Amino acid sequence: MPARATRPVGTVTRGTTNPNRLRRMDRWIAATHGAELRRAADPVAVDLGYGAAPWTAVELLHRLRDAAPRTRVVGVEIDPARVAAAEPYAREGLVFRHGGFEIPLPQRPSLIRAANVLRQYDETEVAAVWERLCARLAPATAHSRGGLLVEGTCDEIGRRHVWVALGPEGPRTVTLAARLGSLGQPSDLAERLPKALIHRNVPGEPVHAFLRDFDRAWAAAAPYASYGARQRWMRAVRDLTADWPVTDGPARWRQGEVTVHWAALAPRG
Questions:
Q1: DSSP 3-state assignment of 201?
Q2: For 125-138, what is each residue's pLDDT tens digit?
Q3: What angle do CA 243, 244, 245 make, to 5 degrees?
Q4: pLDDT value at position 72?
Q5: Which InterPro entries does the UniProt entry name for this protein (predicted)?
Q6: Which backbone phi and psi does 15 adopt, to 5 degrees?
Q7: 49: closest CA among 91, 16, 25?
Q8: For residues 92 and 90, what is the distance between their CA atoms, to the nearest angstrom?
């Protein structure tokens, strides 16, 4: 008797997508996780909830292969009509599968990217989704930290983006990334905080204090604006390092990014 098909876990998203929307996240993944992908025996990356069009999965394949040429990408969507619509874009190294948070693959992937997927969920549901997805990642070994889950939110054209990076053990870091020429102040990124943090941007919560301090550092760095928004951002981030556990350095700051330990911004209680 044939086995009954497992029903995908999750709900259908709005499916909004645009070319290059996730370029900042992809660029960060390639830079920070590329070595792990190169070391993996069979590096598989999942674009979870790619949406109504497969542009983000196609772009993820190209960007990861620049860093790790053996990487394969699997686009996973809970809406079967979207999977069918994506099939013509399948190619060597890129396939599409019907599924959800269960990640319907025989192997544990080296990367799961879930961008703008949890936005519609309740904050109380996030921890369980993270736990389920982290359990599907490639495990850590003596020579590897294991797979990486990158979950976050961005605006419609990818100018502002905030994501959490998690390993098999749980949350590691939070990254804020922006097109600096269109940024008024760092707290403009608050509306793109992932679901785990967006409702915590209130007095008394660490993420609120971080954005407050970032705005103050940005204001103090105003004289550097004459050299461009990038120099102002880099100066502001450098000042932040006095009080916040920033994990990256000038090479990433120059890209309009800053990464902080998750524990420093995690919700209280």
A1: coil
A2: 999 999 999 999 99
A3: 130
A4: 98
A5: SAM-dependent_MTases_sf (IPR029063)
A6: 85, 10
A7: 16
A8: 7
